[in-house]
Amino acid sequence: MNRYIIVFLSILLAGCLPKEKRQAAQGSDETIADNRYESAISLSHIKVGYSGPSLVAPFYVALEATVKRTVEQYGMQYFMADGQGDVAKQVAAIEDLLSKGIQVLIVNPLDPKASVEIVNRATAQGVHVFIVDSVIDDAAAYIASLVADNNLNGEILGQWLAENKNEELKIAVISGAQGSPAGREKRLGFVRGLSDGQLHRYGKTNFDIVAQGWGNWSNDGGLKAMEDILVAHPYVNVLLAENDAMAMGAIRAIREMGRQDQITILGYDGQKEAYELIKQNKYAATAQNSPQILGETIVETVVKFLNKEPDIPRTLYTPSVLVTRQNVDQFYNPNAMF
Length: 338
Fold this sequence. Notes:
This protein is α/β, with parallel strands linked by helices and 338 residues long. The chain has eleven helices and twelve strands. Helices cover 41% and strands 17% of the residues.
């Protein structure tokens, strides 16, 4: 039986996650190995279609480029159709891919429910469907999905904050988009990790979430949300942004108001510009969600399926890694796309 063993750097999390949580993560069958799988069969006849939410955000650009590169490295044919940030347009894009006679469809769905019908139609036509980065409703018929463990990523950020800040915390949250399952998981995981960390360390909790803004996952959205938050709550001393892009936009507002030395900044994704700020001690920590790991691993999962490998879990997770100033040099690549 194949095992999918997480690349979980325990040194990063020592003292952060409870022992039983660390063991559960390390022992999961639904995590990913970092070694490249070699196909035993020729895949040159396989057509793979990919549709993502858009090609605007750097994360999505890097994810699409990685999927394309990895598909072609395996000798398969690659087709792409952009969702253009609109649910109806993504459905039309997938219909276009199906018209090209693809055998495999990889989708990063804009909406977990709106994509169900087109995914089920593709499956009914004999197309093997795989989901990457975002979740889809359980009513969808697909082979496997690959996502970051957003709950665990939130927990390790919350645990880090509990371990490193012992003053009363006044926290602002900048969320991506209302209704986003990934954003909700990140928030709840963070609160759980922070609460558990403070209880373990101090026997009580000592934080308030005083504001939530919406940044639509963008740099400019993070800037505007943080401006509004600081006007209403100038005493904020922690910012949790649900991705690095919004956090970096928020930093601009924080600097403009002269609060750069008073606010601890936390984010998600592991964007190289965030790593640069971490190296400069201007950004505290981020939880890695690598588009390179996502793209390479989802295609590798496709190849395993085509090779009739048994026991592929329906839900797979990428490694959860906390990146701080202490270990950022291990991950920073100035030539990375993201």
